[in-house]
């Protein structure tokens, strides 16, 4: 996979534990962009991988959102991030020049924000099965 000679790309996934829907959001640095992709169950590993990569490739393609609410909060019309993040697991993933592909596991705090748990470093060579497996592992280990 070609990353366009960027120093880094980043994206995140919110996995709704009630509906099984996954929301993929590209980022510009740590800031979420004003777009997202939705993947409804049932879906195959290939569909999951395809949307994850598509999202990553949209990273830094537009100006980030400086809105007080995330794109998904606005989509669901939920003003409180704490309320929005209920029943949603969160992971982030990306590519950087030093580590290659990295997937990060997060845990949800009582106040609704997420705290870092661990990184899964995949290296500079893109291996589709390892990438998809790491994303799914991170979602499984993430907490709500």
Fold and architecture overview:
This protein has 144 residues and is α+β, with helices and mostly antiparallel strands. It is built from four helices and seven strands; from the N terminus they run E-E-E-E-H-H-H-E-E-E-H. Strands 1, 2, 3, 4, 5, 6 and 7 form a seven-stranded antiparallel β-sheet that branches. The termini are far apart.
Defining traits:
144 residues, alpha+beta, NMB0488-like fold, 4 helices, 26% helix
Quick structural overview:
By secondary structure, this protein is α+β, with helices and mostly antiparallel strands. Helix content is 26%, strand content 34%. It has one domain: 3-Layer(aba) Sandwich (NMB0488-like fold), CATH 3.40.1590.10.
Number of domains: 1
Largest β-sheet summary: 7 strands, antiparallel
Q: Averaging pLDDT over every residue, what do you get?
A: 92
Which architecture name does CATH use?
3-Layer(aba) Sandwich
By CATH's scheme, which homologous superfamily applies?
NMB0488-like
CATH topology: NMB0488-like fold
Secondary-structure element pattern, one letter each: EEEEHHHEEEH
CATH class: Alpha Beta
Judged by helices, strands and strand pairing, the structural class is alpha+beta
Estimated radius of gyration: 14 Å
Approximate strand percentage: 25-35%
Percent range of helical residues? 25-40%
Termini, distance in Å? 32 Å
Instruction: Tally the helices.
Output: 4
Low-confidence stretches: none
Overall, the morphology is globular
DSSP strand count: 7
């Amino acid at each position: 996979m070609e990353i366009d000679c960027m120093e880094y790309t980043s994206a995140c996934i919110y996995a709704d534990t009630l509906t099984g829907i996954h929301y993929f959001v590209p980022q510009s640095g740590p800031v979420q962009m004003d777009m997202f992709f939705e993947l409804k169950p049932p879906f195959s590993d290939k569909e999951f991988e395809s949307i994850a990569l598509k999202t990553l490739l949209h990273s830094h393609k537009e100006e980030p959102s400086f809105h007080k609410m995330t794109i998904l909060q606005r989509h669901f019309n939920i003003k409180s991030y704490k309320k929005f993040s209920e029943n949603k697991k969160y992971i982030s993933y990306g590519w950087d020049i030093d580590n290659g592909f990295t997937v990060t596991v997060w845990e949800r705090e009582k106040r609704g924000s997420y705290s870092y748990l661990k990184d899964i470093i995949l290296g500079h060579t893109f291996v589709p099965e390892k990438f998809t497996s790491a994303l799914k592992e991170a979602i499984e280990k993430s907490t709500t």
